[in-house]
Amino acid sequence: xxxxxxxxxxxxxxxxxxxxxxxxxxxxxxxxxxxxxxxxxxxxxxxxxxxxxxxxxxxxxxxxxxxxxxxxxxxxxxxxxxxxxxxxxxxxxxxxxxxxxxxxxxxxxxxxxxxxxxxxxxx
Amino acid sequence: xxxxxxxxxxxxxxxxxxxxxxxxxxxxxxxxxxxxxxxxxxxxxxxxxxxxxxxxxxxxxxxxxxxxxxxxxxxxxxxxxxxxxxxxxxxxxxxxxxxxxxxxxxxxxxxxxxxxxxxxxxxxxxxxxxxxxxxxxxxxxxxxxxxxxxxxxxxxxxxxxxxxxxxxxxxxxxxxxxxxxxxxxxxxxxxxxxxxxxxxxxxxxxxxxxxxxxxxxxxxxxxxxxxxxxxxxxxxxxxxxxxxxxxxxxxxxxxx
Lengths: 123, 256
Description:
The complex is a heterodimer.
Chain A: E1 2-4, H1 6-16, E2 33-43, E3 50-57, E4 60-67, H2 71-76, E5 89-96, E6 103-110, E7 116-117
Parallel strand pairs in A: 4-6
Antiparallel strand pairs in A: 2-3, 2-5, 3-4, 5-6, 6-7
Chain B: H1 2-20, H2 31-34, E1 47-51, E2 64-66, H3 69-83, E3 87-88, E4 110-115, E5 118-123, E6 129-133, E7 152-158, E8 161-167, E9 190-199, E10 202-210, E11 218-227, H4 240-244, H5 247-250, E12 254-255
């Protein structure tokens, strides 16, 4: 059987090149979800930084995992290891997981003081 | 007296064996090895480099390919997982090494140090190390080698090119693509690379890869790498603590 990469490559060519640690296929890159919540933890680490965020909903608190880029790439976007800390009230935009689980890939954040930071969710 | 005779005979026999054995392989960084007379290398890859994604894709799987029945099962399972929004056996995401050839085209820089006897490549991606021996040694005997995800690479200079032969892969948790074409790499994967300098800031590598357990014929591609002088590699590890914080590596969309 002769295979062509058209299907597979079409799905991942754009986004996968931005990632290295894992495949990004499970994120819905066509959707943006805005999360208002309280930072539980900010991990400044390689190969990915991350934020754990508690989001208050009518049904209770949801714990979200937000996946970010490497510190090296984030520094170029203005991030520092103290940009956010536990307890901060923030608004985070993500591309959510297709499964509906509480996780997403980072797009941007608005800090409590109104500053906005972006950054590639890459590397 | 018998003991003395026996000891003398044993010593003689041992000396005889030693005389017939080849000299032990010197380490690539042994001063005695480094100072052996050799022709001057046509180029020195020392520096920090990164794959040029504008010149070619980071993928190594060709646009069309024919798989063995066993590999086809994995590929079909990968396509099926993608149709459902999932990912089939993303072992790199679960902290298994990228291995060759994918380690070369990660979106991370590679620090390269070249000495007359070897080239040391350390990818910033999880600090994967790859060593290309240039000191004339042969591949390790198959019954001695410890198989690794970057394999064993032996290089030789051919004119202005460096030709590198890489074999001895583990044959498990090792893939030819990530999140796309789920095609495994077997223990018989064989990679031949031809390195050439394009200019001071760019080198090019022609890849020829065979793996008769997984695909028919050889896969060829050419990649370029550019100097990345504005960065250094850093310590990067894939830790369980890391993955527990990342939705992508713990999602139920993963097909393991």
